[in-house]
User: Fold these one by one.
Assistant:
Number 1:
Amino acid sequence: MNTASTLENQGRNKTTSENPLLLLAKSGQSPWLDYIRRNLITSGELKRLIDEDGLRGMTSNPAIFEKAIAGSADYADLLTQLHAQGMSTGDIYERIAIRDIQDAADLLLPVYQATNRRDGYVSLEVSPTLARNTQGSIEEARRLWKSVGRENIMIKVPGTPEGVPAVRHEQDRKRSQFLCQPH
């Protein structure tokens, strides 16, 4: 059964009293996971969460990736390979983050399509170092959007007075954005 069919049939597969996440969805809420890790994607667990628990989106940020990378062996081979290529720490982080976000976005794409773009997003954050730089935030949001290359990503922009125009600029271009608290 595909994800879109699963979304339509969730009520028949589990009662809401058995699964509080389905109760949330039934009441119009969209459960998102504030976590991402390679094994979550490759093990099939993310697909299960989408299909069986009604997961509607995921957030990411540098701290989430730091915990995922430091707390598992999921990235060991790739870290070794990218380090051997002479990549900087920032470039390694971005390569890992973009790959995982692309794969998660691919799994959430049926949700995005079935909900007419209301749900099914994975977020990626503009660097908090750009929190006071409107033009830098605009350029970084555009670069990240192009690098990920998925329509169901949401770029988070630091929630500062300078971030507001960056969000408006990108929304005018039909890119999903929202403000987030700077770290």
Note: Residues 126-183 form one domain.
Number 2:
Amino acid sequence: MILGYFGDCDICKVSASAPDCTTNKIASDRPNLVGSTSLYGKKLRAGKSDILPSFPTTIAEIGVPLVQGVSQIANPRKHNKAKSTTRTLRLESELDEGLSKLAEKDNVSVNLLINKALTRYVEWDANSEKFGLVSVSKRLLRTLFEYLPEKEVRDLGTRSGKEGGPEMVTFFYKKFDLDSLFKAFENLTSKYANHFKFEHHFEGKTHTLVMKHDTGLKASAYYAESVKAVFALLGLKAKTTETEAQVVATVNVD
């Protein structure tokens, strides 16, 4: 997460390391202030400091020059204090124009879009093809499940959990344990593969997993059996509740 400038501050025109640098003073007091290319940064540059009391603390984008045509880039990961790295990239004009239009449409910075795209590539795209994963629409998935008897669907889910589960988790995270399994649910099958919306809660000794998929009862049967099978490999028993739209699993740990 970038919390200061490298080089001269483009708002107050002094060295970012100087004690009277306005940007760094604000960055210290309000670390979530959006950078100078944002709406708030532009107001700040114009001397409209009245934006500060009501500023919505969402994304840290105290920026650094990075990409030609883009003045700053921020790390999109929340609560991540890891060091950031500055790289200079050359973008084709059409790509830069497309990024600018998307950023304006979504009311975010171009830097945030670049980080999201690169994060997805590193965490998903670069490895998904190697693992042989393909994208399937939920409509097609629902149709395929409807053609199979429930017993076959459950058997397929069990096989997927026993074989595909540990293979996929180990491939992406280089180990197979409870922590990496939860990461796989959250990032691989939910965030990127978009099989379902995933929620994870932990209270006392009980993990509660909610998988909202909206693809029918047989899809719930498949996911439920898959979850039971993959947790069984870790010596844990998952109890599941199935509806047409979601599966809720509870797992107790010692």
Note: Residues 1-45, 47-77 have pLDDT under 50 and may be disordered.
